[in-house]
Automatic annotation (TrEMBL):
Pfam families in alphabetical order: Self-incomp_S1
Organism: Linum tenue
PANTHER family: PTHR31232, S-PROTEIN HOMOLOG (PTHR31232:SF172)
Keyword rRNA-binding assigned: no
Protein family according to the UniProt entry: Belongs to the plant self-incompatibility (S1) protein family.
Record has Metal-binding as a keyword: no
Name used for this protein in its record: S-protein homolog
InterPro entries reported for this sequence: Self-incomp_S1
Key words, A-Z: Secreted, Self-incompatibility, Signal
Subcellular location as annotated: Secreted
Length: 95
């Protein structure tokens, strides 16, 4: 079971619990100024956690992997991955 909490400066998506083979989805509209930043804090148990930028229009590494305004993050046993839709692969992002 994962605990996930995502937010931006203006929006707090709340805390959610995500079980194996489950998904958690949220939507937003990016700022017209191109400065939208969402970050997430993910916990697995008491010892394993990560905080990462889930979306930032100013970061080409993140923005170039967005497909039709969607970012798809995958948590695996060895770390966090960002899906590249057009290649059909998950790219390692953080452990």
């Amino acid at each position: 079971m994962l605990t996930v909490h995502c937010k931006s400066k203006d929006d707090n998506m709340g805390t959610h619990w995500v079980g194996p083979k489950s998904e958690y989805e949220w939507r937003f509209r990016p700022s017209i100024f191109g400065n939208t930043l969402f970050w997430c804090h993910v916990w697995k148990g008491d010892d394993s956690q990560i905080v990462y930028d889930a979306y930032y229009a100013g970061d080409d590494k993140l923005y170039d992997r967005v497909y039709m305004d969607n970012s798809y993050w995958v948590v695996k046993d060895d770390g966090l991955y960002l899906r590249q839709f057009w290649k059909g692969i998950d790219v390692f992002f953080h452990h």
